[in-house]
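Fill in residues.
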């Protein structure tokens, strides 16, 4: 919730403009600059707050796109079967076998200074295969259940059965797929930006790490410039992971803690 608030209202929360080089460089924490300033005289806290917005956008956009593709491919392959299952499963297996991170690095390096839209497209197009495999396995276990046979006997169309009969029973797995893709996107995007394959002028945590590393922030007495964005990336990924566990527990009664009556 904290990250969502920061991403939604950065202009009201950040004390200064993230790009304003209007202060003394390399200052330590103070009442005016809680996390100090960069070697260019910019406020670190303001950059950190504004960087939240891009990370949240990437998480939700890539998570949504990857989950949509995973649902379309995984559910369709399992329910339709036959040639459709073979072709879609082959495509999924190819992406599972290929090392995704090196492939993303190659694509980002070819694009040159990948912007936000490029990162979303690349990560969304390559981050759905694991979720599709999980969803396919779940649908295969449901395909011959009585409620689906009853829907077929009623003469329902395949699209209706998939949307209104199968998907509602897989809500927790779909949410888990979304959160897993969100974690993947946040960590991967930050990694690409850190090694210089993102837009160096973007306001993001990965770009903060890139400039902090280029200016030897740890050795130059500006440790918070390098440490705080890394801590925020880890905290956001941990938040998505905890949400994943929570939704898994809600959707799977076997995981719920049985409370004894006193």
């Amino acid at each position: 919730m904290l990250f969502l608030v920061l991403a939604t209202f950065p202009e009201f929360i950040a004390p200064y403009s993230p790009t304003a080089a209007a202060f003394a460089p390399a200052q330590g924490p103070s009442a005016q600059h809680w996390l100090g300033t960069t070697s260019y005289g910019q406020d670190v806290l303001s950059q950190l707050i504004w960087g939240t917005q891009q990370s949240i956008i990437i998480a939700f956009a890539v998570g949504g796109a990857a989950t949509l593709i995973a649902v379309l491919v995984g559910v369709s392959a399992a329910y339709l079967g036959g040639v459709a299952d073979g072709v879609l499963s082959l495509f999924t297996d190819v992406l599972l076998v290929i090392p995704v991170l090196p492939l993303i690095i190659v694509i980002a390096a070819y694009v040159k200074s990948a912007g936000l839209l490029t990162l979303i497209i690349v990560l969304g197009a390559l981050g759905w295969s694991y979720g599709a495999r999980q969803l396919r396995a779940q649908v295969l276990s449901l395909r011959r259940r009585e409620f689906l046979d009853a829907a077929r006997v009623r003469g329902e169309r395949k699209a209706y059965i998939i949307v209104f009969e199968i998907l509602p029973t897989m809500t927790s797995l779909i949410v888990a797929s979304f959160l897993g893709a969100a974690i993947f996107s946040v960590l991967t995007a930050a990694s690409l930006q850190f090694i210089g394959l993102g837009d160096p002028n973007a306001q993001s945590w990965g770009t903060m790490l890139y400039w902090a590393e280029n200016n030897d922030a740890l050795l130059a007495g500006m440790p918070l410039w390098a440490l705080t964005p890394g801590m925020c990336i880890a905290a956001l990924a941990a938040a998505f992971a905890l949400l994943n566990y929570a939704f898994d527990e809600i959707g799977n009664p076997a995981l719920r803690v049985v409370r004894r009556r006193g």
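Residues 192 and 198 are 6 Å apart (CA to CA).
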